Amino acid sequence: MKSKQSALSVAILASLLLASNASIAATLEEVVVTARKQAESLVDTPVAVSVLGAEFFEKSGFTTMTDVVKFVPGFDYSPTSSVRANGTRIRGIRTASYSEGFESSVAVVIDGVVMAREAAGFFDLYDIESVEVIKGPQGTLFGKNASAGVINVRTKQPEYEFSGGGDIMFGTYGERRIRGSVTGPLIDDTLAYRITGSTNENDGVIDNKYAGENDVNSKDTWSLRAKFLYEPTDQLSATLTLDTVKEDNKCCIATWRTSGDDIGLIGAAYTPNALQLQEALDLAGITAGAGNRSVAIFEDRINQESEANGVALQLSYDLGETQLTSITAWRDYYIDEFNEADQLSNTDLNNRNGTEADSEQISQEFRLTGNINDAVSYVAGLYYFNEDIDADGSIYVELGAFGLFNSRTRSIRSVETTNLAAFGEVNWDLTDKFTLIVGGRFSDEEKDATFSRMGTSIDPNLPFATLFSGDYIGAQNSEDTNFSGRVIGRYNITDNVNTYVAWSRGYKGPGFDVGDGANGAFANETGGLPFVDAEVPTLIEIGFKGWFLDNTLSVNTALFHQSTEDLQTIRALPNGGVSNLAIGEVVSDGFEADFMYLTPVEGLTITGSLTYLDVVYEEFLQEPELEGENFEGVPEWAYSLIANYDFQLGDGGWSGFARAEYSWQDDKNASTGNTERTLIEDYGLLNIRAGLTSPSKKYSATLAVENATDEDYPYWIGGSTFSALGSTATSQYLGPDRIVRLTLGAKF
Prior knowledge:
Residues 1-25 form the signal peptide. Residues 42-150 form the TonB-dependent receptor plug domain. By secondary structure, this protein is mainly β. It contains seven helices and 44 strands. The chain has a 22-stranded antiparallel β-barrel. A five-stranded mixed sheet has the order 3-8-9-6-7. A three-stranded antiparallel sheet has the order 16-43-42, with no helix packed on it. The model is unreliable at 1-25 and 264-275 (pLDDT under 50).
């Protein structure tokens, strides 16, 4: 595998050396970002931010965050069998939880609106202006749950000139996708619209060997977004956005990686009825292994339906030296998911679980941006947020060998969160080269949670009995205030080169464990719910950014040390359940860099990134003691390279491109305890793309091969339903194997 890395690197370097005497025909375009709530050059922005623009998405064909993360330093996203527990990482830090009482450490912001639930913001990335990945605590300006960083998505605005386009794609596993967008005027120079829609389906990427059942982990999604821009005067503009996304997927199931030791149900009464996983796999015709993409289940035991709807109104008014902005938003996110947790429907023990949840949020932000004089500028604002989420979850256990069918525990929970904040940041040019930046945010957050559980009584001798028996009710309230902020010193070495030093402190409010594995004994004893303290990160960062070689090379680097106290995370329990806890303190040290180079070869651009991360448990409040151990799920090294070559075909006006994308990451461990059986070994992925565009620029065709070398790689490796019985078996959630796609596009 490492030879593939070297081969690609040598090829790229060779192309640069061979072209060393060629003339430079162009320069890179300036990248504009809004990471500090104002438009500014990427080089001038004194925070660590990676930007992916519209051209990146057009050339790469990427439509999901799982595609994007491979090419952004310090950024990772690992899907699991439940979108509720998917965890976005920035610099190794994340919160992955099945509990509605917790929020992500990474804020997802779409057109200025913070998503209450991370999964609600991960729609198909189509008709996108840019995606900014902002690293480190960003609570000063972005506020809620931005303790690790922010994913800032900006969709394209309406235009007054009529235009549009779309594409149709066909791919492996019966994949088919249709997308389209149209924009134009309703009233010349006053009112414009933009309508964007997409639909994406496939027939399932996991082979289902159960007779008569369809393949699973299939996809069926569609989305629609309408934006209206109203500019009645030179001072006032209003943007109204309405969007909806629906999914009806037979997803997302893991597969068996190892079968472990044959096991029997623990307890003298049950040893004659040994449950042997390997026999069940043999009967189903499944071979456990790193490349296993097969299950044997009833299709109706896996399902993932979701719907997200939103309305947002952004008003901007130019007051001269000051810009007033108001963003009012309402959103709703509904999900109903069900999963066969043991990936088999032919064993004596079957474990199925599901949750139906509905989240409704409203938010309001008022923001002033302006200049006090030529040397001092500022951003100041007020923010209100409220989310009310209700969930109904069930866990089913069938013990066929013992005559116990459909044993069930049901939990009903509700969480309401209200956040009020005032924030501001001042930029003071002390000299023509040095700028001091000071910002702060005062937050008041209140959270109310209720939880009730109804469990079917089963034999207490069973090792997992505590998961499925006992009725209890718990309720909890918390109110917390916090002041977070940052201080940055930026120095302009030249007009094109900047460096900065930053200190910042973030905040994410307390949480309650209201998941299915919540501690019933705790609730019965106290009448409350397990409480987890607020998450507080502190960051020290040094950055260097600049344009070089006559503006043909852009480089952005950052060196950082971050300590996160009371990191909120999830942990597996010995009885097979999970709990949410604050693990003490996690320390992250690292370096990251990205670059873009417009080479002397006309049309050839090289883009790359490099990440080094050392993330360890500095303090671990639970057993066993893990101080000094690596934090789960974080590779030490990762890098990516993209070579894109644009060319003309003769004198006929046809143009084309050829593109190679390579990403590699080091070993990482998927479990909190860093066990050998959950080690994910290093792997590299190669994508190859080529496309043609007609002389009129109206028609295009692109052929892409993703994971061209057909690598088997897991997003995660974990225990199983049988862990409570002493099994060492492991399951895995695999990334896609080789995928071939043909896309045909048209513009008008």
